[in-house]
Structures are given as structure tokens and as C-alpha cells.
């Protein structure tokens, strides 16, 4: 008698728990092994995860381009493109503003920055390596971001994975298909074949997902400093509480617009937040998000192929909340009072900064540094957050992915209602 097949999401969850336990056990602070003895093996923990992520990232750019192009081309006319695009963009901006507001409200209420111990601040400032931030490119202004959306060199865009430019390329190609239906037939057929190949690679990568999650979680847990986690406990709880409230907000939005049970929606996408938690990269999970949107949520390709790649580029609600919480938290640590005007300015600054933020691990800290500079908060304060950022990055990536799918779900309902 054959053993019953374990559901994919259960496999992922088991791998997540095993990775947590394995990583915590091997963490030098746990006392079983020293940091010197475990260090040579860390790269092997990451290997399955690196293979998994490389497979997804290998086809991410072509999949995003052809998905957007085919999604746009399936519209009736340019008027439909404007209708779907404007509604989606307004939804993204609205949810980002709500997320930032939640973060500010929670942090000004709980005041976690006033509870941090001075010795932890000093210890972290001395031990953390902030050189990573210094190596990053200078942050672009909003006008520069807008100008750079139109790529000078397509090959350069491909190699640097500039997501806004990639989305633009997909939309231009889709508009070409939409307005030149006969002359674009052969190229459109190629895009369909390329999309099928990309989705086949996604299915192949998913076979490695449980092992990848196990390895990535073990690697992350071995590196986390638990003494620092306990020292920043109130800060961590504030961020996690805000992320939970965002999920509640998404559920209310789904209930309001679709009149459907949001728990059913969350159940159908359950693998996505887990994969996002393990990889800390919205863009890496995007190919599987597209697959889930079409196969499980039964969304129209017109909507999912347009909304999800766009969302992975400009819709970062979890990251926006984190940046708001971190900014107010560090202002409290350094006893810098933010006025009501400053807080309103913070909402606008974080909302604008979230547009074009790369959906890759760790980039949130780079964006945060520019926000801190705007409000004259010492940038070196980021060192306090380094030790717990990896864990919080994993959590906010899960929320970012859920936000993209909830938007696609709502836009799909609105689209069907308008095109009955």
C-alpha cells in the first residue's frame, strides 16, 4: 500500500519548522557548537536555497516581460489598459499609505525606542558592519527614477534587473500587440511559448522548494543573534503587530469589494507567504505567484499578468510599514522629536520611496538610510537594527506578496463586474 501524498503546503511548513529547529540548535549562542566550527558548513546550508532561487531568477525577467505583454494584449483597447492600470495604481498607493500610517500609530503608541537598553545600542553600534550601506549606489530622486524607467540599453536593464524598466518594456510590447494585431502575430506566439517554458521551469523549481526552505531557514537561524533579538523584543513585536494589522486590512478589503470569505483566499495562497518568508525576495517568488493566481485563484490572465509583476515592483506594504516603524523607533532612541508635520511628511516620503524599491533581500535597509537622512536621524542607528533585520525582512516579504495577490484578487472581481 502506497503512502498518502503530503500536500505541497504541508511539505513547505514541515521544512520551515525543521529549518527553524535545526538552525536554532546549531546557533553558537545555543552552546552546542562554536561559531568557528559551524562557519565552514554554512554555505552548504544555503546550497539548496541558492539553486532554487537561481532557477526562479533565471526566468523571472522574461516571464515578467511576456506576462505583462500578453496581459495587456488581451485587453480590448487602450481604454481598458488605462482603466485597469489606474485602478491598480490607486489601490497600491492607498494600501501603502494605510500601512505607513499603521506603523507610525503603533510606534508612537508603544514607544519601543524608549525601552531599548543603552548597552545594546552601544554593543550593536560597535559590532555591526555598516559598510554594506556605504557600498550601495546613491539613492535616486523621484524625477531620476521616472526618467530611468525608459531604458537606454535593454541588455543593461536585463543584467541589473531594473524592475521598473522591465515592467515598462512589457507594457510597451503589450501595447504593440494591442495596436498592431496582425504584424505582431508571430512575436506574440513566441511570447506564449516563452511563457510556457518559464512556467515549466517554475514547476521544476517547486520540486526543490521544501529542501530549499529547510536550508535557507537553517542558514538564517544560525546567523541570528538571539541576545539582540531579546533586547529589541518590543521593537520586533511592534513590527510584527503592524504586519498582522495589514493582513487584517487586506481581509477587510477583500470582504468589502468581493463579498467573499477572506480566509478562503488566504488558504488558497498559503504556500506563497511561506516561500516569501524563506527567500526574503518578492521577485523570486513572482513566477509561482502567477501560477497560483491562475490555477488556484482562477484569476483572468489579463488581470494577474498585469497586476502581479507591477505589484512586485511598486507595492511594498510590509516594507513601507517597517521603514515607518524603524524611523520613528530610531528617533525615539536618539531622543529626536518628530512633529505632526514630520509624521505626515514621513507618510509621503515612505510611500514615494517604496516605488521602485528592488524586491530583493536587504534593500529595505538601504532605502531606510535615505529616509533617516531626510529627518536628520543618525544613519548609524541602522546598526541597531542589523541583527534582527533578516528575520523582519522575511516577515515583511510575506506580507508584500500577500498584498500583491489580494490586489489582483480584488481587481479581478472589479474587472469581471465591469465586463459582464
UniProtKB/TrEMBL annotation:
Membrane protein topology class: Multi-pass membrane protein
Pfam families in the cross-refs: SDF (PF00375)
GO CC annotation: plasma membrane
Record bears the keyword Thylakoid: no
Parts of the chain that traverse the membrane: 51-76, 88-106, 162-179, 199-222, 228-257, 341-359, 365-388
Lyase recorded as keyword: no
One BP term from GO: dicarboxylic acid transport
Keyword annotations from UniProtKB, A to Z: Cell membrane, Membrane, Symport, Transmembrane, Transmembrane helix, Transport
Localization annotation: Cell membrane
An example molecular function term from Gene Ontology annotations: symporter activity
Main location: membrane
Name this protein carries in UniProt: Dicarboxylate/amino acid:cation symporter
Organism: Leptospira jelokensis
Amino acid at each position: 500500500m502506497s503512502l498518502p501524498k503530503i500536500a505541497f503546503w504541508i511539505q513547505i511548513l514541515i521544512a520551515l519548522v525543521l529549518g527553524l529547529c535545526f538552525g536554532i540548535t546549531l546557533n553558537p549562542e545555543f552552546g552546542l557548537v562554536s561559531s568557528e566550527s559551524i562557519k565552514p558548513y554554512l554555505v552548504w546550508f544555503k546550497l539548496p536555497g541558492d539553486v532554487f532561487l537561481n532557477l526562479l531568477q533565471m526566468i523571472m525577467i522574461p516571464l515578467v516581460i511576456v506576462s505583462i505583454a500578453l496581459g495587456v494584449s488581451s485587453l480590448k483597447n487602450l481604454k481598458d489598459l488605462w482603466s485597469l492600470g489606474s485602478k491598480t495604481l490607486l489601490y497600491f498607493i492607498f494600501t501603502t499609505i494605510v500601512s505607513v500610517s499603521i506603523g507610525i500609530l503603533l510606534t508612537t503608541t508603544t514607544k519601543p525606542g524608549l525601552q531599548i537598553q543603552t548597552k545594546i545600542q552601544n554593543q550593536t553600534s560597535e559590532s555591526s558592519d555598516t559598510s554594506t550601506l556605504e557600498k550601495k549606489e546613491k539613492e535616486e530622486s523621484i524625477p531620476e527614477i521616472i526618467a530611468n524607467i525608459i531604458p537606454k540599453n535593454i541588455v543593461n536593464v536585463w543584467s541589473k534587473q531594473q524592475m521598473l524598466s522591465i515592467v515598462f518594456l512589457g507594457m510597451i510590447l503589450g501595447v504593440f500587440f494591442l495596436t498592431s494585431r496582425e504584424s505582431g502575430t508571430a512575436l506574440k506566439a513566441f511570447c506564449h511559448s516563452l511563457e510556457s517554458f518559464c512556467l515549466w521551469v517554475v514547476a521544476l523549481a517547486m520540486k526543490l522548494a521544501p529542501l530549499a526552505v529547510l536550508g535557507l531557514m537553517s542558514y538564517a537561524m544560525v546567523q541570528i543573534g538571539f541576545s539582540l533579538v531579546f533586547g529589541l523584543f518590543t521593537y520586533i513585536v511592534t513590527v510584527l503587530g503592524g504586519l498582522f494589522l495589514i493582513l487584517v486590512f487586506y481581509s477587510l478589503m477583500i470582504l468589502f469589494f468581493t463579498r467573499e470569505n477572506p480566509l478562503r483566499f488566504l488558504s488558497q495562497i498559503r504556500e506563497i507567504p511561506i516561500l516569501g518568508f524563506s527567500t526574503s525576495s518578492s521577485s523570486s517568488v513572482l513566477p509561482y505567484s502567477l501560477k497560483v493566481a491562475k490555477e488556484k485563484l482562477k484569476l483572468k490572465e489579463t488581470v494577474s499578468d498585469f497586476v502581479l509583476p507591477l505589484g512586485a515592483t511598486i507595492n511594498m506594504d510590509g516594507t513601507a510599514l517597517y521603514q515607518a516603524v524603524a524611523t520613528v523607533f530610531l528617533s525615539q532612541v536618539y531622543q529626536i522629536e518628530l512633529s505632526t508635520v514630520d509624521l505626515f511628511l514621513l507618510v509621503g516620503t515612505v510611500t514615494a520611496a517604496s516605488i521602485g524599491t528592488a524586491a530583493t533581500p536587504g534593500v529595505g535597509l538601504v532605502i531606510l538610510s535615505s529616509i533617516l537622512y531626510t529627518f536628520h536621524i543618525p544613519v548609524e542607528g541602522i546598526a541597531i537594527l542589523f541583527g534582527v533585520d533578516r528575520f523582519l525582512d522575511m516577515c515583511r516579504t510575506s506580507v508584500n506578496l500577500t498584498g500583491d495577490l489580494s490586489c489582483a484578487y480584488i481587481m479581478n472581481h472589479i474587472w469581471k463586474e465591469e465586463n459582464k
